[in-house]
Amino acid sequence: MPAGQSPITQDPNVVQDGRTTRQRRLRPVVMVNTGEGKGKTTAAMGTALRAWNHGWDVGVFQFVKSGRWHVGEQDALQALGSLHESTGVGGRVTWETMGTGWSWTRAFDAAEDPARAAQEGWRHVKELLDDEAFDFYLLDEFTYPLDWGWIDVSEVVEVLTHRPGSQQVVITGRRAPRALVEMADIVTEMTKIKHPFDLGQRGQAGIEW
């Protein structure tokens, strides 16, 4: 290798599109974590932690979990959001859960009309994307309202494809629609090999939530 030349310049898979290494590293992506196996949301939350550490503003939107389902990552990320408010370290953190009726609307009961609640959540996320409100969005379990027909898949693909700026988006959930998979930049399918649930084990704090 010639002196001063990095290994990446020798990679035949690097697209010669005139972009600098910095521009490639800042390219916004859509990630989809799907499949029947465990770890879709867990992996997405880990990515959110990375984003926060880089000073990115993080928005987490849970589209299916009820208000009673309180995951450990919520307390951790909100504590980091508070740390940012008091010290400036990291980025802002916003956490919204459909099961509690979303914070920006109390006009209806999400439990009684979950389809409408999901649609309201997506409407709000579209506005945030248009305003470039966050650097990183986690749309948790967003594939389900798409799969159930509550939200139009083609509209989601259109909005995400043409979102402005360098906003990063991660979507989780089983049965990701083909159109979403095709437009996404990174798609990971979690495959279950074995799980204690198959033997009747209940979910455990610290493992499942």
Automatic annotation (TrEMBL):
Residues 1-13 have a biased composition (Polar residues). Residues 1-24 are annotated as: Disordered. The keyword Transferase applies. GO terms for molecular function: ATP binding; corrinoid adenosyltransferase activity. The keyword Transferase applies. GO terms for biological process: cobalamin biosynthetic process. Its EC number is 2.5.1.17. InterPro entries: CblAdoTrfase_CobA, P-loop_NTPase. It is an enzyme of class 2 (transferase). SUPFAM superfamilies: P-loop containing nucleoside triphosphate hydrolases. Keywords: Transferase. PANTHER family: CORRINOID ADENOSYLTRANSFERASE. This is Cob(I)alamin adenolsyltransferase/cobinamide ATP-dependent adenolsyltransferase.
